[in-house]
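Question thread 4412

I'm putting together a teaching handout and wanted feedback from people who do this every day. The idea is simple: show students a protein as raw sequence, then show them the structure tokens that encode its fold, then repeat with a second protein so they can compare. Below is the first pair exactly as I plan to print it.
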Amino acid sequence: MNQPPIPTMRIEESGYLLHPPYGNRYVAIQVDPTQWTHVCSARFGPGRPCSFSKQTKWTGDSYRYDIFIRPEHRQISLRWFNGSGEGWLIAEDKNERGERCLLDHIAQLPDEARRWDFCHFIWSALSQTRRAVVHTTEDTWEQAILQKQITIRKRNGRRTASIKPQITRSTLGQSPILS
């Protein structure tokens, strides 16, 4: 592990809400790291066997995770750093409602390498899902354009585009399970 216990950070970094409110877009927000308290690091730990060779050890030092809290705003955050940059995934701390955030559980794990495993899973799942959503949306719009299924409206001087709904015949009543 060639990383310090507390990460080096920029004056201002970008972040996202871990789970944006319903109906909202995934919007980048600016984070001032000085307003946050470092709870724990989640560094990779000793080298582990690579997938292609048991003799070759992967150190994981290019990935780093840290958990921070901002109690006065009831927030907990996973900060990530890797070859693609750094960022914050911010969640609401709901402890006073009797709900505990997964990050709170991860922060209490004594084994730092296990914390890294869970943090990496959260970061990679969200990153890959976000990319999949972008590709799926692009594909949906491309098909709608090619099939001429786009509606353009103008309201109050503002133009919007939407995809016409597909009308499909329901087979619900034909299901042998529901008969």
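The second pair follows. I'd like the answer to focus on this one:
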Amino acid sequence: MFKFLFGATQTIFRGLYMLILPLLIIKLFSRRKESLLRRLLRFSYNLYSSLLNWVNPYVLSSFGIDLLEGYPRIVSSIALSVMIGYGLLSLIHIRLRLWMAVVLVVHGLFIGREWDGINAPKDFQMGARIDE
């Protein structure tokens, strides 16, 4: 009975993943839905920030590395992105493909590099004129 329910749940999650993934990709790349991308990036920033602020005192006292500055921040946000993405994909029993890993690495790289400007009022305005 439980094996059947687990298999049915797994099939439902796979179907939802295959149904929702193209819709998310279309919405992320459309010009009108920039707010969805901003919300996704702000959510990721808040999650990574809370995790790194929690772990940082232990790492700083043990190894002398500040995870909230420079390259350690970028590397740790890439690692968090890959680990969280792999964890979510393994929950729904989907293999981590190369293109998914590349997307997770780029996502973590972007969050790590743009850390200081994410919660600014005009965040993620690439190509905007500064002198206006």
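Top answer:
Good format. For the second protein you could add a caption like this: The CA atoms of residues 94 and 132 lie 46 Å apart. The first helix runs from residue 2 to 29.
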